[in-house]
Amino acid sequence: MALRTSCFAENPALIFHGFSTCRVVDPTPSLRPSTLSVSLGNPRPSSGRRRIRRITPAVSTNVDADLPVQHADVKATSSGWREFARRVSGEWDGYGADFSHDGKPIELPEAVVPEAFKEWEVKVFDWQTQCPTLAETEEPELVYKVIKLLPTVGCEADAATRHSIDERWVGGTNNSVSSFAYHHNGCYVAVWPINDKRSANTSKLLELEHCLADPGNQESRVRIVLVVQMIENDGKGSSMVKLRNVRVFREQWYGPFRNGDQLGGCSIREPAFASTEALQNEELVGTWESHEFASRFGNNHPEHVKELLDETSRRLVRDEHGLVLLPKKLWCVYKESEEGKIYGEAGWLLDHDRALTSRCVLLRDGTVEASKSTQSFH
């Protein structure tokens, strides 16, 4: 994705790279065939009955009870958005964790950790999370919430308490996204300007969110969020941009949209992950073949919601520069090119020779560039 860093415009210029199919080039004359299927098949199959538990709010929160429990069967503005809406909507539950700019897991605040964990000297890094998501089909509009649940000791499947709710809107009168690029397979890339009261007036925060859906399992996805801090240089027209931290969510689809009123409980298929082994450099670096999908944002392309469309195939070389290694075969990259472009990339290594990749490019000079998306195979 690309964003101009000199100022926060409502629709910053963006470049998206990601969700294209890639394959590491074998040094031998013949290349191994890719095993990725471009067709994701039918909607999610039934995975059996699962235990659920009720959620109790810790504080009074606006849960938007007026939201519909399912989107109407209306005519879509495009077949791509309609398919995307079908795949992205529903109850996504799992775990989320924060990492430092160099990939170290960050412990949860001491105030939310149960006393039993403290007595046992158990460090807690993961939030159990819900992400109820609803995409309309008539218009390119979407809303989701990130609900963090307080840690509990043992299963405690009968109740859970909400710690916080972060609501995000794409499109419509409540729109809070600067740019949003989607692929019909359920992947998307979003740029979110963040109002952080802790930052000085000369400092702005931007979240680059990469959602990667597993092509082999429609009920599994990851969301990798790069939190970027932009600091104005005393009004001299230039900015300092740095990666502040990384946020990761590993999620499973648990059923149709219910506005987060129930949770998969002890049957959650995603375990906590923040303190598990990180990806290794040698698993990622090398030469890849890729197929890219693209959208364009900026002054000449005023719409802030666009579909990622088939563009081109190319080879690329991955190195260790700016590489942040994360658990569960995930990674992100944050670096600046000699031309002054800031690259924010996220990826998921599906197995030893396949991966999904998404890239954002932040432009310091405000130049409008393409938005690209890629699935990668390693």
Largest sheet: 12 strands, mixed
Task: Tell me the structural class.
Answer: mainly beta
Distance between the termini: 22 Å
Radius of gyration: 20 Å
Q: Provide the low-confidence segments as ranges.
A: 1-15, 26-43, 45-77
**Strand elements, count:** 21
What is the 3D form?
globular
Mean pLDDT, to the nearest integer, reads: 76
So how many helices? 2
The proportion of residues forming helix, as a percent range, comes to under 10%
Order of helices and strands: EEEHEHEEEEEEEEEEEEEEEEE
Tell me which oligomeric state these chains represent. Answer: single chain
- Across the major sheet, the strand order is 13-3-7-6-5-4-12-11-10-9-8-15
